Amino acid sequence: MEKVKKLIKSSIRFESVKMDSVYDILDAISWLDEPGVKDIAQFSGIDPRTAGKAIKNCLQIGIIKEIAKDYYVLTIAYPYKGSKEQKEAVLREAIFKMPLMISLRQFLKLKDSLDVALRKAATVQKIENFDKASLDPLIRWASQLKALSLDLDFEDFVDKGVKDKEIRHVESENKKVVFLSHSSKDKSFVRQLAADLTNQNILVWLDEQQISVGDSINDKVSQGLAESDYFVIAISENSLNSEWVKKELNSALIDEIESKKVKVLPIKLSDIQFPPLMRDKKYADFTKSYKLGFDELIKAIK
Fold first, then answer.
1. How far apart are CA 263 and CA 276, in angstroms?
2. What is the tens place of the pLDDT at every residue in 162-194?
3. pLDDT-based confidence at 155, cuts 50/70/90?
4. Are 62 and 55 in contact, with CB atoms under 8 Å apart?
5. For residue 6, which phi and psi values (nearest 5 degrees)?
6. Do residues 112 and 168 touch, judged by C-beta distance below 8 A?
7. Over the stretch 84-127, which tens digit does the pLDDT of each residue have?
8. Is 207 within 8 Å of 263 (Cβ atoms)?
9. Largest CA distance in the chain
10. pTM to 2 decimals?
11. Tens digits of residue pLDDT in 47-69
12. Which helix (H) or strand (E) holds 117?
């Protein structure tokens, strides 16, 4: 009977890989255009087997998704050239918001031991054939990142981003952070822009408009957006045809962004008519010349 039980695998299993390999994976996916495992491994300089394990963990955490067999995109905003602390904050927030982690913290608050709380949380989340060993790597990561803290709440990630921004403004008034939102179809242009902004000592958070209708900005991009000075949205034929712009770029969203003291700054990539909400906002025009558009953008930021 014991042998039979061991043959029945848990419906969820986290791989035992170093946390740094996740940042390697996120770096690759944030920069590459819908890469596969081999592309990600080569970009990151890690072996494909390790890349595959890290990708599996990222999928289960929900920070990437597979859009076709062996092709991946980010589901979160990510600071490609950010500090390790900022990248850890992305992973901490994603793990904290996992349904399994939410249930686990609830049972921990009810004074259950970690093992008991994990078994109950797994049951609530419909994880079949519960096996604690299959979840141990996730629990180690969560503990290391303090994502199991019973004192944390969703709003704390926004508050930390705002606080970090206030500290940065005091310590380095000229250091700017840009949250760059764009359609994945404009990725080639945006990666060049991100490289040029980074060369100007501007930290860039990359976001491929993975926000769905009804999602809250607070829930999806909290710390990265709150830490930013500018919400730069690339307006093009591609972005205007995306569900993100058509259904989410509304006054409520703009108010939510600007409430964090983040200035909305559109950039125009093609000769199209701006959405009504954007027409009164100052924008940088890249339609005639990349250099002129970039100069306008830098002037607005600095």
1. 17
2. 888 889 888 887 889 999 988 888 889 999 999
3. confident
4. no
5. -70, -25
6. no
7. 999 999 999 999 999 999 999 999 999 999 999 999 999 999 99
8. no
9. 72
10. 0.86
11. 999 999 999 999 999 999 998 89
12. helix 114-124
Helices 217-227 and 251-258 cross at an angle (nearest 10°) of 40
Q: Which residue is listed with tokens 């494909």? A: 48
How many residues are listed for the chain in this entry? 302
Beta-sheet strands, E only, within the chain? 64-68, 71-74, 177-181, 203-207, 230-235, 263-268, 284-285
CA distance 14 to 139: 10
Distance, CA of 97 to CA of 190 (rounded, Å): 28
Per-residue exposure over 4-40, b if at least 16 CB sit within 10 Å of its own CB, e if not: eeeeeebebbbbebebebbbbbbbbbbbbeebbbebb
Q: Position 6: which residue type?
A: K
Show Cβ contacts of residue 23 under 8 Å, excluding neighbours closer than 6 positions.
84, 87, 91
